[in-house]
Design goal:
single chain; globular; five-stranded mixed beta sheet; alpha+beta; 45% helix
């Protein structure tokens, strides 16, 4: 018995010793990486304890810190959260390897949403690939077309009632003329014939509700806010909408109408550029070279979309001005495709981006068909889960 005890004790001690050595090696590697980042990568000077977290203007309304930082550091900068570095990438050349390749994995920060959903926004790796493959048919343009009916109803002032119809798997079949989002999730099968579980479907519905409401609602808020301050641009939007609806008995938007709202779309994209502040983040699986700098593997990197969309090297020194002509076809074709990425880019781009733009365009058309908008009370933008006003925004809607 004593021999067995001695053997187990020796094994336990060996395992413990191995863990200690492993921890020490990891600690040394981490300290070496932090020291390298501190010495070699650019960024505002951090406080020895707080890092840059208490820098003047950081996280304050108006995003002044972000604007000043990208003016000084136009490819990347290191922001220290205490002793933890986060490399902010803020130029098309910088973000391209992150968005277009598999060089990074999602950071632990995404887990804050885990109790609410474990859908596409949270998961990674092979599970993400499976979900993405199964959900993609839900956003086919033939499926999106039918949603215009609901979008028109939601903007119709005579619409004050709604109903939620309980759905059951048995009620859903491929023979239905119209397939909604839930139908396609219930019917989706992978190459092995397996579909999504009830929990997986619930997670994806929760993800879609957030992605399709809060973010789109924020985008529409800022579009109305800024167009209310630019009467000439608003008049052009109204002219385009009036031309679209000329000779019709009602102002319901048809799917084929959306591509005709050219100038309205330019205004929407420009307002998104000005106010979007959703920063995807990744942990590097391997070193990343950016503008002559090497970011070590294991480092947290943030795709700072607000800074990308306000980078003077890309958008000019007037990047804070509202100029819808930036999104005329000729100007878009001259820019790097990664210069404007509100829905991310590459294989991991937002699966619902076309749906979101359809919502925004149809809402804008219905609103400006009937109303003119002017600003009564403005507010500075603040960063939360999406960009929101610091205080309430008051707009005056006048019947045309």
């Amino acid at each position: 018995m004593s021999l067995i005890t001695s053997i187990f004790g020796t094994v336990a001690l060996s395992i413990f010793g191995f863990k200690i050595v492993q921890f020490l090696l990891s600690l040394v590697a981490t300290l070496h990486r932090l020291a390298y980042i501190r010495r070699h990568l650019p960024g505002p000077k951090p406080h020895w304890l707080y890092g840059n977290f208490r820098d003047p203007g950081f996280m304050e309304p108006g995003f002044k810190w972000e604007q000043e930082a990208v003016t000084k550091y136009r490819r990347l900068l290191v922001f220290w959260m205490g002793w933890k570095p986060i490399v902010m990438l803020n130029h098309p050349d910088s973000i391209k390897p992150i968005l277009a390749t598999n060089i990074g994995r999602k950071t632990d920060g995404y887990q804050v949403f885990k109790d609410w959903t474990e859908g596409l926004a949270i998961i990674d790796g092979d599970i993400w690939k499976r979900h993405r493959s199964l959900i993609t048919p839900s956003f086919h343009f033939q499926v999106l077309k039918q949603y215009l009916v609901v979008m028109n109803e939601a903007v119709d002032p005579n619409y004050h009632t709604s109903s939620i119809i309980h759905k059951d798997v048995k009620e859903t079949s491929p023979e239905k003329k119209a397939m909604d989002f839930l139908d396609t999730l219930l019917l989706a099968k992978d190459s092995d014939g397996n579909g999504l579980s009830e929990k997986e479907i619930r997670d994806e519905v929760n993800t879609f509700i957030f992605a399709g409401t809060d973010t789109t609602g924020s985008a529409l808020t800022w579009f109305l806010y800024i167009i209310a301050q630019h009467p000439e641009e608003q008049a052009r939007v109204q002219d385009e909408v009036d031309t679209l609806f000329a000779g019709r008995d009602d102002d319901s938007v048809r799917y084929e109408d959306l591509k005709k709202l050219t100038y309205t779309t330019q205004c929407l994209r420009e307002s998104v550029r000005l106010y979007l502040n959703i920063p995807p983040s990744r942990v590097l699986r391997e070193p990343l070279k950016v503008n002559g700098f090497t970011i070590p593997a294991g480092t947290n990197v943030m795709v700072n979309l607000y800074q990308v969309h306000h980078n003077p090297d890309v958008w000019g020194d007037d990047h804070m001005d509202f100029k819808p002509e930036r999104f005329e076809r000729a100007n878009v074709e001259k820019r790097d495709p990664f210069a404007f990425v509100p829905f991310s880019a590459g294989a991991r781009n937002c699966i619902g981006q076309q749906f979101a733009m359809d919502e925004l365009r149809s809402a804008a058309a219905r609103i400006f068909r009937r109303f003119s908008v002017s600003l009564v009370k403005g507010a500075r933008p603040v960063f939360q889960a999406v960009t929101k006003p610091e205080n309430e925004i008051l707009l005056k809607f006048s019947h045309r």
